[in-house]
Amino acid sequence: MIYSRYVVPLVVAVAITMISSVGCHKNGSGAVVPDPFLKDIAPFPVGVSVGYKDLTSNVSYQTVVRNEMSSVSVENAQKWAGLHPEQNRFDFTQADYIVEWARKNGQRVHGHNLLWHSYNPGWVTAFQGDSAAWENLMKTHIQTVLQHFRGRVVSWDVVNEAFMDDGRLRNVETNPKDGSIWRQKLGPDYVARAFQYARAADPTVLLFYNDYGQESKPAKVKATLDMVADFKKRNIPIDGLGIQMHMGVSQANDGIRNVIQQFAGTGLPVHISELDILASDWKKDPTLQYTDALQTKQADKYRFIAQTYKTLVPKPQQFGITTWNVGDTDSWITKQGYTDWPLLFDQDYKRKKTYYAFAEGLKN
Ligand code: 9MR
Q1: What is the pLDDT of residues 320-355, one digit of tens each?
Q2: Active-site residue among 68, 75, 161, 215?
Q3: For position 79, which CATH number holds?
């Protein structure tokens, strides 16, 4: 009696809550069943970047990443400032936590990144030394990090964002505000040498070049293709190309199609590596409303990207699509003060219209 009065309704309530938190639909025979997860729908890995604080402080966050994703990228913890606090000291605590957590869930881990002009610790920017000392700094970091994660991290963004919008290499002289100290201290061929050091340190790991804005900056697409051709000619290792795709909701589809198609043409694996779509179109407007029309426009863009990737990238080159963090309020976009909703899940980790459109685009 007590059983049917209290326990049964309780069990039913818990089951309903579990199902409703992931969404459900009616199957062929009319029964209500939970929706599949992204990783079950996608014919290639689907991932998300994970922040250490987000992951360790929030159960809903963990649940979404564990259930929905087959791949995890490390948002910040593997950058120089995340791993290498002093010249002679590495601290792998946070990165190891994320990597092991993902591996426990059977997820693939993509490393991000070995060399970037940004997010370098103060001691690097202040480092004094001749070109041999700088070379040694880069080499030691790459070797130490790759050896540490060997066998646990499948692939790495070896060099991140080396090009400017006009296709020239980012440099301190031309770009005082966000130039590359590596280009300045190591000369124009530092990108190639970084890939060589990486291959020597771990011959099993996949080496990616990763950049942003290629969908709206054709000069960057060309610069990357030229680099790949040059690497092939000189026998410099490179295994894949990352297209970040941080983009405004009004980004033209032509540009998206162009970079996917051209990069697929290299024969290398292609990773959409940091996807988010700004409803604000990069305008900081605190009065912006997330109207139905805007949600639909953004959802259509997510669907288009998934479909285009699936159609234009040959199967063996489909490394996967990764979005840049989980819920709207976890995003670097909202953290930078944009009034925005750039991702697939809302601040309560509920699936959004963008989620369902993206899932449709992934379906075979
Ligand atoms: O999302 C990242 C944010 O939390 C960091 O503060 C920022 C600086 O390290 O980097 C963000 O991620 C960037 C990524 O590493 C490279 N491509 C652009 C991303 C957004 O800025």
Answers
A1: 999 999 999 999 999 999 999 999 999 999 999 999
A2: 161
A3: 3.20.20.80
